[in-house]
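re: that chain from earlier
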Amino acid sequence: PAPATEAPAAAMGDIVDVATEAGSFKTLLEAATAAGLVETLKGEGPFTVFAPTDEAFAALPEGTLEGLLKDPEALKQILLYHVVSGKVTADQVVGLTSADSVAGPAIAIAVKDGKVILNDSATVVTTDIETKNGVIHVIDQVILPPAR
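^ sequence. v structure.
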């Protein structure tokens, strides 16, 4: 058989499709659905999504996720805090000290021991998962916008 080549962008799914296919973002997708953000994340973009894994959501204090799923507006703000407008690849992220989230507040970015850390808590574990409307960076913790 011919060697595998990279799929053309047209064949590539959007952020939601790619996250669904990955299988480790069920909670994120459930939350995006509850918050009414699926259409947004399937939109034109480009978006950069710092996507917490299912384990990251599971690590939230007990009852947090359940409470948020019942409060779509609060949930929406937290999810939008994980999204940056535009496509920011890993090589660009490492040069930043912060990025403005779609929710408004900036996300603090630091590089420590070669790892990208968001808000001094979440570590980027996988970078540059390409989608047709942006890029996904996988993080090991849910980041919360600063309390107002």
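The first strand starts at residue 47 and ends at 52.
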